[in-house]
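Hi everyone, sorry if this is the wrong subforum. Our group has a chain we'd like a structural model of before ordering constructs, and none of us has done structure prediction before. Sequence below.
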Amino acid sequence: MLLRKHGSDFPVRSLTREMERLFEDFFGTEREGIALTEWTPSADIKEEKGAFKVRMDLPGISKEDINIEVENNRLSISGDRKFEQEEKREDYHFVERSYGRFYRTFPLPATVLPDKIDAVYKDGVLEIELPKKEEVEPKKVIIK
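Answer:
Right subforum, don't worry. Here is the predicted structure as C-alpha coordinates:
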Protein backbone atom coordinates (compact mmCIF):
# COMPACT_ATOMS: atom_id res chain seq x y z
CA MET A 1 0.00 0.00 0.00
CA LEU A 2 1.35 3.41 -0.91
CA LEU A 3 1.86 5.64 2.11
CA ARG A 4 2.82 9.27 1.99
CA LYS A 5 2.68 12.13 4.40
CA HIS A 6 -0.24 14.39 3.71
CA GLY A 7 0.78 17.99 4.19
CA SER A 8 -1.73 20.62 5.18
CA ASP A 9 -1.21 22.67 2.06
CA PHE A 10 -0.15 21.46 -1.37
CA PRO A 11 1.07 23.93 -4.02
CA VAL A 12 -1.86 23.11 -6.32
CA ARG A 13 -4.36 23.79 -3.55
CA SER A 14 -2.67 27.13 -2.79
CA LEU A 15 -2.74 28.00 -6.48
CA THR A 16 -6.44 27.08 -6.67
CA ARG A 17 -7.27 29.31 -3.70
CA GLU A 18 -5.29 32.20 -5.18
CA MET A 19 -6.99 31.83 -8.58
CA GLU A 20 -10.43 31.80 -6.91
CA ARG A 21 -9.53 34.96 -4.99
CA LEU A 22 -8.31 36.71 -8.15
CA PHE A 23 -11.50 35.84 -10.06
CA GLU A 24 -13.67 36.95 -7.16
CA ASP A 25 -11.78 40.25 -6.88
CA PHE A 26 -12.01 40.87 -10.62
CA PHE A 27 -15.64 39.83 -11.20
CA GLY A 28 -16.91 41.06 -7.86
CA THR A 29 -18.52 37.81 -6.78
CA GLU A 30 -19.15 37.71 -3.07
CA ARG A 31 -18.70 34.37 -1.41
CA GLU A 32 -18.01 35.88 2.00
CA GLY A 33 -14.95 33.69 2.41
CA ILE A 34 -16.86 30.42 2.30
CA ALA A 35 -14.90 27.65 0.60
CA LEU A 36 -17.49 25.58 -1.29
CA THR A 37 -15.05 23.81 -3.58
CA GLU A 38 -13.52 20.37 -3.18
CA TRP A 39 -11.42 19.79 -0.08
CA THR A 40 -9.23 16.96 1.14
CA PRO A 41 -9.87 15.34 4.53
CA SER A 42 -6.91 13.93 6.45
CA ALA A 43 -6.42 10.17 6.59
CA ASP A 44 -4.14 7.72 8.39
CA ILE A 45 -3.42 4.22 7.10
CA LYS A 46 -1.67 1.58 9.16
CA GLU A 47 -0.90 -2.07 8.60
CA GLU A 48 -1.55 -4.62 11.30
CA LYS A 49 -0.95 -8.36 11.22
CA GLY A 50 -4.35 -9.29 9.76
CA ALA A 51 -5.62 -6.06 8.22
CA PHE A 52 -5.01 -2.54 7.03
CA LYS A 53 -6.80 0.19 9.00
CA VAL A 54 -7.87 3.53 7.51
CA ARG A 55 -8.95 6.43 9.75
CA MET A 56 -10.30 9.59 8.18
CA ASP A 57 -11.47 12.75 9.96
CA LEU A 58 -14.87 13.79 8.58
CA PRO A 59 -16.44 16.05 11.22
CA GLY A 60 -19.78 17.64 10.43
CA ILE A 61 -20.79 15.06 7.81
CA SER A 62 -23.65 12.61 8.19
CA LYS A 63 -22.85 9.00 7.33
CA GLU A 64 -25.49 9.16 4.57
CA ASP A 65 -23.27 11.71 2.80
CA ILE A 66 -20.22 9.39 2.76
CA ASN A 67 -19.61 6.85 -0.03
CA ILE A 68 -17.05 4.03 0.07
CA GLU A 69 -16.28 1.95 -3.02
CA VAL A 70 -13.74 -0.73 -3.86
CA GLU A 71 -12.97 -1.34 -7.51
CA ASN A 72 -9.89 -2.54 -9.40
CA ASN A 73 -7.79 -2.74 -6.22
CA ARG A 74 -8.61 0.86 -5.27
CA LEU A 75 -10.42 2.14 -2.19
CA SER A 76 -12.39 5.32 -2.96
CA ILE A 77 -13.96 7.49 -0.27
CA SER A 78 -16.10 10.45 -1.29
CA GLY A 79 -18.75 12.65 0.21
CA ASP A 80 -20.14 16.09 0.75
CA ARG A 81 -19.99 18.49 3.70
CA LYS A 82 -22.90 20.86 3.37
CA PHE A 83 -22.82 24.48 4.52
CA GLU A 84 -25.51 25.29 7.07
CA GLN A 85 -27.65 27.65 4.99
CA GLU A 86 -30.04 28.42 7.83
CA GLU A 87 -27.37 30.32 9.74
CA LYS A 88 -27.13 34.05 9.12
CA ARG A 89 -24.00 34.59 7.07
CA GLU A 90 -23.80 38.31 7.79
CA ASP A 91 -22.93 37.52 11.42
CA TYR A 92 -19.70 35.76 10.41
CA HIS A 93 -16.45 37.69 10.43
CA PHE A 94 -14.79 34.90 8.46
CA VAL A 95 -15.27 31.21 7.73
CA GLU A 96 -12.26 28.87 7.77
CA ARG A 97 -13.89 25.45 7.64
CA SER A 98 -14.08 23.83 4.22
CA TYR A 99 -17.37 22.75 2.68
CA GLY A 100 -18.31 20.90 -0.45
CA ARG A 101 -17.34 17.63 -2.07
CA PHE A 102 -14.30 15.54 -1.26
CA TYR A 103 -12.76 12.50 -2.93
CA ARG A 104 -9.85 10.32 -1.80
CA THR A 105 -8.58 7.15 -3.42
CA PHE A 106 -5.97 4.70 -2.21
CA PRO A 107 -4.36 1.75 -4.02
CA LEU A 108 -4.97 -1.60 -2.34
CA PRO A 109 -2.52 -4.48 -2.33
CA ALA A 110 -3.70 -7.77 -3.80
CA THR A 111 -3.73 -9.27 -0.30
CA VAL A 112 -6.87 -7.31 0.72
CA LEU A 113 -10.16 -9.23 0.84
CA PRO A 114 -12.62 -6.74 -0.74
CA ASP A 115 -15.73 -8.71 0.33
CA LYS A 116 -14.72 -8.52 4.01
CA ILE A 117 -14.14 -4.74 4.26
CA ASP A 118 -15.95 -3.13 7.19
CA ALA A 119 -16.56 0.56 7.94
CA VAL A 120 -17.72 2.41 11.07
CA TYR A 121 -18.44 6.14 11.36
CA LYS A 122 -18.54 7.59 14.87
CA ASP A 123 -17.92 11.05 16.33
CA GLY A 124 -16.76 12.46 12.99
CA VAL A 125 -14.17 9.74 12.37
CA LEU A 126 -14.51 7.13 9.63
CA GLU A 127 -12.72 3.86 10.37
CA ILE A 128 -12.32 1.25 7.65
CA GLU A 129 -10.88 -2.20 8.25
CA LEU A 130 -9.46 -3.98 5.20
CA PRO A 131 -8.77 -7.62 6.15
CA LYS A 132 -5.85 -9.36 4.48
CA LYS A 133 -5.74 -12.86 3.04
CA GLU A 134 -3.99 -15.38 5.23
CA GLU A 135 -0.36 -15.70 4.35
CA VAL A 136 0.25 -19.00 2.65
CA GLU A 137 3.57 -20.62 3.30
CA PRO A 138 5.44 -21.41 0.11
CA LYS A 139 5.28 -25.07 -0.82
CA LYS A 140 8.57 -26.68 -1.62
CA VAL A 141 8.52 -28.77 -4.77
CA ILE A 142 10.82 -31.74 -4.82
CA ILE A 143 12.50 -32.38 -8.14
CA LYS A 144 12.34 -36.00 -9.29
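For your construct planning: Strands lie at 43-47, 51-57, 66-71, 74-81, 100-107, 118-122, 125-131. The mean pLDDT is 80.
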